[in-house]
Amino acid sequence: MQKSASASSLGPGGLDLSDMFFKPIQNTSPPSPTKRQTKISVIGAGNVGMAIAQTILTQDLADEIALVDAQPEKLRGEMLDLQHAAAFLPRTKIIASTDYLVTVGSDLCIVTAGARQIAGESRLNLLQRNVALFRGIIPPLAKYSPGTILMIVSNPVDVLTYVAWKLSGFPSNRVVGSGTNLDSSRFRFLIADHLDVNAQDVQASIIGEHGDSSVALWSSISVGGVPVLSFLEKQQIPYEKETLEGIHKAVVDSAYEVISLKGYTSWAIGYSAANLARSILRDQRKIHPVSVLAKGFYGIDDGDVFLSLPAQLGRGGVLGVTNVHLTDEEAQRLRKSAQTILKVQSQLGL
Q1: Are 251 and 214 in contact (CB under 8 A)?
Q2: Residue 243: CA count within 13 A, CB half-sphere
Q3: Is 69 one of the annotated binding-site residues?
Q4: Closest CA to 207 of 339, 345, 330, 342
Q5: 176 annotated binding-site participant
Q6: Measured between alpha carbons, how far is residue 107 from residues 74, 136, 223 in Å?
Q7: Which are the contacts of 128, defined by CB distance < 8 A and separation ≥ 6?
Q8: Which one from 194, 210, 248, 325 is the annotated catalytic residue?
Q9: CA distances (Å), 114 to each of 44, 137, 157, in order?
């Protein structure tokens, strides 16, 4: 299943034509030992996994992509479908298997496998259905790629990132959840839409749980470098807190709306995960709101909990957490979000 038939073996009796097609250059030296290939494995070939794989492929983020899924026929179909686009894309080796051996030597493993969220279902209600799946996913990934970085996308992402950390035995900097990176993109879009500006000029973050108890950092929002709330206050422009809460609620409800309309989310999370993969593999050292081990930050001291904080990402995974100023209300809400997740984790027995 790993690859389709190669044109190099089209000669008589399966003769390999690749050595005959080109004349070798004389007096060559071997490739530099410092040059290495970048490999990304995507676990789960559903709508989310394939959106992520397709986005990574088109953005030329990896030399090799490995796909793993429990359904061999669908998996092979997805692999062939991507391979057939080779003439239109950067040269990337695409392999697939139901065997986790195919992931060996991965720089980044992105886990999307899990039960699909049902319309109206809370992300936290998915937990028990997905923990059992992770027991069969995470240990093989850690075995075949002991130096990899794990990125968890499956929901509920914060709790499952904690589960992946415990099952892998990895240091916390090499286990990260996609968290509220997408929530923050939705937040920036809605603010930009209100102000009629480009979303890329809006600096705004959602932190905490990727879900109902998330926290909108209104105090640190800026547009083009101008702090929004302090600007409104200085200009004596009134604004209602209910309006701000309405925007935050729209962010929280966004995924539910998309799921109710098309049955699942895919494209936005595909771009979000590729955005994180770029920061990690190319050592961009950019700051993203992603799910990290939060104990010891912002007064969260009650237990090991993963939730989204503004974190710097690079080749070593999570490099640090940004010391963003929070208002007392924001800090209180963040700690409450942590308690929400810890309450669920306490039932896992890990």
Answers
A1: yes
A2: 7
A3: yes
A4: 330
A5: no
A6: 25, 20, 35
A7: none
A8: 210
A9: 8, 10, 11
Alpha helices (H) along the chain: 18-21, 47-58, 72-83, 127-135, 138-144, 157-168, 181-195, 228-234, 241-262, 267-281, 328-345
Whether 45 has a binding-site annotation, put simply, is yes
Residue 15's pLDDT is: 63
Query: 57-75: per-residue pLDDT in tens?
Result: 999 999 999 999 999 999 9
Residue 290: both structure tokens together? 């992603």
CA 156 to CA 211: how far, in whole Å?
8
Joined tokens for residue 148 = 């990899």
Does residue 210 carry a catalytic annotation?
A: yes
**Residue 153 is labelled as binding a ligand:** yes
The residues with which 216 forms a beta bridge, in sequence order, are 206
The answer to whether the peptide bond before residue 156 is cis (omega within 30 degrees of 0) is yes
The answer to the question of whether 270 is labelled as a binding residue is: no
- Tell how far CA 50 is from the center of its chain: 13
Q: What are phi and psi of 33, to 5 degrees?
A: -70, -15
**Nearest to 183, CA basis, from 275, 253, 109:** 253
- Judge whether residue 3 has pLDDT over 50: no
